Amino acid sequence: MLVLTMAGELSGGAFLGGGLAFIALGLIYYLTALTTAEPHPRPTAVNAPRDLEGEASVTMLERLPIPVLLIGAGGRIERANPAARTFLGLGSERGLLSTVLRQPRVLEAVSAALRGDRGATVEYSTLAPLESHVRAFVEPIRLSAPGPMPFRAMLVLADDTNSKRAERMRADFLANASHELRTPLASLAGFIETLSGPARDDEEARDRFLGIMTVQTERMRRLINDLLSLSRVEMNEHMPPTGQVDLNALTADVAEALAPVATRRNITLKLLEADSETALVRGERDQLYEVIENLVQNAIKYSPDGSQVDISVSHGVSRDAAEHLGARIDPESGRLTLTAPALDPDARFGVVRVQDQGGGIERRYLPRLAERFFRVDGQKSGPTSGTGLGLAIVKHIVNRHRGGFTVESAPETGSVFTVFFPVATASNIATQPDLPRTEDSAVR
């Protein structure tokens, strides 16, 4: 009856997390009864099935994909399954819950359960290092063995990040799409009305209006595609990829694909010699392709005809070196880190650096470059006008890959955009290198 009641309140991933929580509750009750009861005689044919059931229950608990913990007196962690150890970053030693989970409401619920009070469900959110939303189920467990502390607390943590982000994604998509689509839709409606009325028989006006309508339709198509791409990235931003990608080969693929676009404006794409034969990083190939493609496309778009765009790849550099790679393009240039990985002096990164010879960006605009729909003054209209979502997509993909994103720019000098990703190691990858893309999987 309890499960049916909860099913009416939860949906999607939240309901799955709640269901797994109840399964974990039953297993914890069963295991606690096994481990705290008085010693039994040597197994016989009569009690052998019970031992097999206990072993199966332990295995099931260990295989559960959600974190489950048993908390004892004083808030000390007595048992934690692998999912809990990964989720909370627990080492081999079991310490105090308060040292790994700094959520006062959850700790209060655990303390109440240890006193034998009723269980509770607590929701909490964190914003650093990444946004997450968690539902914590706390239940008291009474031990069968006598003692001064007859209760333990069962804690199950269900990750609701996906469902919360999906809700916000739908709201953001409607708000952003309605705002950005209003202008081209109004233009199309006006031209359709004109073509249906005063300009019905004016061939010159009809051809001119149809050309403008085509441009506005293409703008709406790009906007919708970018919004969908950004939404997909945000949905999985809290889940780092586990594949590996060669930045050298990937960057060469991007340069080759965009060479015809640069050639039409007599712009030279110069791929500088790499400092290593391969540059394996942890990542998802399609998303890393989209990052580099976005940066190179922007460099081409905002560079004058006949100029040059330099693209370089480095490998095995520290975070500090990645953020400050290369000489400053101008003594007065501004340099800003838009997003960065966690501090780790031993971490090494693969770096892609894209430098153009365009008009540059004023220092005051740099902090806003990765905001949704932000466009620098002078770039909000005209043939080079974009959707204002490209660099926001880059930032979220870099965040998902636990990498970094920096920009350096000076007016009339040009800009340098740098992205870097963790080097692939045996401990941070779980799959073979991504296979070469096919035409069907190519990014726009």
Could you please describe the fold and organization of this structure?
It is a single chain. The protein has 444 residues and is an alpha+beta fold. 42% of the residues lie in helices and 19% in strands. The chain has helices spanning 2-7, 12-36, 48-63, 82-88, 97-100, 104-114, 161-196, 203-235, 247-263, 285-301, 319-323, 390-400, and strands at 68-71, 77-80, 120-126, 132-142, 151-159, 244-246, 268-271, 280-282, 308-317, 334-339, 349-355, 404-410, 414-422. α2 packs antiparallel against α3 and α10 packs antiparallel against α12 (390-400). It starts with a helix and ends in a 22-residue tail after the last strand. Residues 1-16, 33-48 and 431-444 have low confidence and may be disordered.
How would you summarize this macromolecular structure in one to three sentences?
The protein is built from twelve helices and 13 strands.
Q: Features of this protein?
A:
alpha+beta, Beta-Lactamase, Helix Hairpins, Heat Shock Protein 90, 3 domains, six-stranded mixed β-sheet, five-stranded antiparallel β-sheet, 12 helices, 13 strands, 42% helix
Number of helices: 12
Low-confidence stretches: 1-16, 33-48, 431-444
**Gross CATH architecture of the largest domain:** 2-Layer Sandwich
| Sheet with most strands: strand arrangement | 7-9-11-13-12-10
| Helix and strand sequence | HHHEEHHHEEEHHEHEEHEHEEHEE
According to DSSP, the number of beta strands is 13
For the record, the CATH class of the largest domain is: Alpha Beta
- What is the count of structural domains? 3
- Major sheet summary line: 6 strands, mixed
Could you estimate the helical fraction of the residues in percent? 40-55%
